[in-house]
UniProtKB/TrEMBL annotation:
Record-listed E.C. numbers: 3.2.2.27
PROSITE patterns: U_DNA_GLYCOSYLASE
GO annotation, cellular component aspect: mitochondrion; nucleoplasm
Classification of source organism: Eukaryota, Metazoa, Chordata, Craniata, Vertebrata
Species assigned in the record: Eudyptula minor novaehollandiae (Australian little penguin)
Functional summary from the UniProt entry: Excises uracil residues from the DNA which can arise as a result of misincorporation of dUMP residues by DNA polymerase or due to deamination of cytosine.
EC primary class: hydrolase
HAMAP family to which the protein is assigned, alphabetical: UDG (MF_00148)
Protein name: Uracil-DNA glycosylase
Length: 290
C-alpha cells in the first residue's frame, strides 16, 4: 500500500501544471511559428515596410489557405487548425481559383502596387476607393489611377477638373497614372483589391474588405495628422472609425458623373489637404507632379 501511495505521489508530481516560464516559452514559440507561416504567405509585390507591419494578417484564417502560394502557383504546407473545413474558401484561394477561370484585374504583380510607392510610415494622405476598374489594362493597384496610354476614366477626369480650379497652375497631365502622387505619400487604396473582368464588385465580401480595414486601422492607430479623403457613402462608411482628433477627414460625394455635381466640384479637397499638412509640419503634396 505504501509503495502504491508513493507511486501515486510520483505520478501526481509528474502531472503538475507547467511553470509560468514554460507557458511563456510555449506562447513565444507559437507566436514565432505563426510569424514564420505569415512570412511564407506574403503575397508577391508586397512592399517591405508594409509587410513588416501587416504580415500577421497573412496567417489568419480568412487569408491563409492558399495565400501567396496561390498567386505563385504552388501550395503551402497544410495547416489544418488554421483551415477548418467549415470555413468558406479563403481570400487568396478564391482569387487563385478566379484567375484560373476568368480574367481578373489587376495582374497578380500589381495587386499591391499601393505598398510599393512609399514607406508605410510616410503616408500623409489617404484616398479610399471601392474596387478596381474592370476594363482591360486599366487597374494597376492604385485607386482611380490607370497606366499610360489608357485614357483617364470619367471619375478621374472629374478629379482633374476639380484640381484645375483648386490648385494653381494645375493642368491636365494627358494621362491617368497617379504614381506621382503615391510616391509623395498619397495612399490610393481600394477597399477590394481584385475584380473579375467586366463585372464590377464581383470580388466584394470575399475578404479584401477585412484586410484593407486592417490597413486603415493601422494608419489610424500608428500615425498622426493623416488627411483622409472620403468620397461617397462607401468610403465614408469604411472610414467611419477614423479618430477625428488624431487625423483630418474631408468628405464629399463621389467624383462619378452620377454625383459629381452634388458637391465634388468646388470641394477644394486638394488645397485643403495641403493647408492641413502644412499645419502639421508636413510637406504639402505637389498635385501637379504626375
Amino acid at each position: 500500500a505504501a509503495k502504491r501511495a508513493k507511486a501515486a505521489g510520483d505520478e501526481a508530481g509528474k502531472a503538475s501544471p507547467l511553470s509560468p516560464e514554460q507557458l511563456e516559452r510555449i506562447r513565444k514559440n507559437k507566436e514565432a511559428a505563426l510569424q514564420r507561416l505569415a512570412e511564407r504567405n506574403v503575397p508577391p509585390g508586397f512592399g517591405e515596410s508594409w509587410r513588416r507591419q501587416l504580415a500577421g494578417e497573412f496567417s489568419k484564417p480568412y487569408f491563409v489557405e492558399v495565400s501567396a502560394a496561390g498567386l505563385r502557383g504552388r501550395r503551402p504546407p497544410a495547416v489544418p487548425w488554421l483551415n477548418p473545413p467549415s470555413l468558406p474558401p479563403q481570400l487568396m484561394a478564391f482569387v487563385a481559383e478566379e484567375r484560373k477561370r476568368y480574367t481578373v484585374y489587376p495582374p497578380p504583380d500589381q495587386v499591391f502596387t499601393w505598398t510599393q510607392m512609399c514607406d508605410i510610415r510616410d503616408v500623409k494622405v489617404v484616398i479610399l476607393g471601392q474596387d478596381p476598374y474592370h476594363g482591360p489594362n486599366q487597374a494597376h493597384g492604385l485607386c482611380f489611377s490607370v497606366q499610360k496610354p489608357v485614357p483617364p476614366p470619367p471619375s478621374l477626369e472629374n478629379i482633374y477638373k476639380e484640381l484645375s480650379t483648386d490648385i494653381e497652375d494645375f493642368t491636365h497631365p494627358g494621362h491617368g497614372d497617379l504614381t506621382g502622387w503615391a510616391k509623395q505619400g498619397v495612399l490610393l487604396l481600394n477597399a477590394v483589391l481584385t475584380v473579375r473582368a467586366h463585372q464590377a464588385t464581383s470580388h466584394k465580401e470575399r475578404g479584401w474588405e477585412q484586410f484593407t480595414d486592417v490597413v486603415v486601422s493601422w494608419l489610424n492607430k500608428n500615425l498622426h495628422g493623416v488627411v483622409f479623403m472620403l468620397w461617397g457613402a462607401y468610403a465614408q462608411k469604411k472610414g467611419s472609425s477614423i479618430d477625428r482628433k488624431r487625423h483630418h477627414v474631408l468628405q464629399t460625394v463621389h467624383p462619378s458623373p452620377l454625383s459629381v455635381n452634388r458637391g465634388f466640384f468646388g470641394c477644394r479637397h486638394f488645397s485643403k489637404t495641403n493647408e492641413l499638412l502644412k499645419k502639421s509640419g508636413k510637406k504639402p503634396i505637389d498635385w501637379r507632379a504626375l
